[in-house]
Amino acid sequence: MKNLILMFLFCSQLLLAQSPATATNEEAATQQVQETLSQEELDKRAKIQELKLQINEIRLKLEDNILLKRYSNYIAYRQISDELFRLEEAYKQYETKKGEKYKELEYQTSNKIRIKKNELELIAEYKDSPIGNLINPPEIQKSEPVTNPFGIINAYSDIKKLENNKVRFKKLYEDIEELTELLEKKIFLNLELYEIEPTEALQLRINFLMQQKKDFNMVLEIVSTTNNVYSRKIEQVILEIQSQISNQVEKSVKIFMTVFVLLIASFLIKLTLKRYFFQNENYYMVNKIINFVIVFLVIMVVLFSYIDNVSYLVTILGFASAGIAIALKDWFMSIFGWMVIVTSGSIHVGDRIKVQRDGIQAVGDVLDISLFKITIREDITLTSYTTNRRTGRIFFIPNNYIFSELIANYTHADLRTVWDGIDITITFDSNYKKAQHIAKEILKQYSKGYTDITRKQLSKMRSKYSLRATGVEPRVYTFVEPYGIVISSWYLTNSYAALALRSTMSPEILEAFMKEDDIHIAYPTQSINLQSTPREMPKDLQQESHYGKA
């Protein structure tokens, strides 16, 4: 194009020299050519600027690319390897030469070699891979076999981990693919720029980009093949784990159905036997035997379903028992105590219990039953009045006390009443039969409601316990004591308000006794003789006294 323009200018000058008349037209033509050249230069500069902007845009996209940063370590490893090779060759030459100068050079070169080797160790993962260890997919760890329902949770966790590894490696493949596309676009733009404005620096940059693209194409091919194999392997492992989960779920359902059938069978057997053993001791014993057999069968079903060799279980329990006996005895015994409390239902939250240990008594309501202790809060009771003389405290009772100490439950099995007694002593000459009748009438009046409630509650307890003496009517006993006749009145009262009813009935009985002329309250008395006249000495003592004086 430039040659055509120059030829056009030369021809125009010749014509201008031959014909002065056409000088004006030739000058106009020359000006037009110059304007054409200026416009072409402007278009060229605009094209260069546009290409540089596009190249810079790609550069900004790749600025924080982790793959390119890893590739820089790969380039550094190769450069350091070349430097190390040159240093080792120089070191071999210095070894063969003599002189202080070469010894010093040998020593310096040896230090440099050691430094380069340390640098190579730091980036050793980039020896054969432009992206280091990322080229290798995450290791597929062997998952634990699903042998029980709790292993299902770990199995799903392993599946989630495998799927994440699969997605992560696939994302690496997509990132490399995107990077190669950007590098190819960048090379194309630089080649286009080189055609317009060829420079040595641009040529070097194009060569580096082409080598970079070549390396990443190699990595892309490797990762692509690895990704296909890795994905199929993960899918196979996931299918195996899912198969184990399905088998375990099916096995658990079968065990659950077996246990459910056993429970239904036990319920039907109890319901049938209840018609033949109507609330007596035989039914109680049969009920206990059925419960024991059902629990034993359930344990056997679970053991033989999940334990291949039961002897292992015996061995483990033997070592565990020995360890518990030697150390942490109280701690583990509290856990076992908690298990006994929960499974047996002997104590519930809200029950009123009494605990005795080392002469200390505490009566209160259960606030909480934790893994290691029972928490109770004292209330105002007869124990508080006669023994502690204080109340309202919070007691923490270790669960292992249930094996070694006395724990009384005032409200077990919904039985919310207890027997309480009032003792009043009358004189020996009192009409004790009338006193018995008066006391019994007052007891019936105040405890009738509790008597009816207790009768219903005891009737319900027959299905669980063997009850023989189930009388609930008030009782009055008579005892002969050194100071008089004791009228002992016993009655049923609310476990939570026994002291209140006792406080109400005691003055009521006392007042009824005092209204009767033939009933007198007895209490310890003492007579003191205050006579001032001295008694005469017996005659025999007087004679002895006389003889003594003689």
Summarize the structure.
With 550 residues, the chain is of the alpha+beta class. Helix content is 66%, strand content 11%. The strands form two sheets. A five-stranded antiparallel sheet has the order 4-3-2-1-5.
Total helices: the number is 14
Q: What shape does the CA trace take?
A: elongated
- Uncertain runs are 1-23, 544-550
Major beta sheet, strand line-up: 4-3-2-1-5
Could you explain how this protein is built, in words?
The protein is α+β, with helices and mostly antiparallel strands. The protein is 66% helix and 11% strand. The chain contains 14 helices and eight strands. The strands form two sheets. Strands 4-3-2-1-5 form a five-stranded antiparallel beta sheet. Strands 6-8-7 form a three-stranded antiparallel beta sheet, covered by helices on one side. The protein is elongated.
Describe the secondary-structure layout.
Blueprint: H1 2-18, H2 23-61, H3 66-96, H4 100-122, H5 151-196, H6 200-276, H7 281-306, H8 310-326, H9 329-344, E1 352-357, E2 360-369, E3 373-378, H10 382-388, E4 394-398, H11 401-404, E5 406-409, E6 417-426, H12 432-461, E7 475-481, E8 484-494, H13 498-514, H14 539-549
Structural descriptors:
3-stranded antiparallel β-sheet, elongated, 5-stranded antiparallel β-sheet, 550 residues, 8 strands, alpha+beta
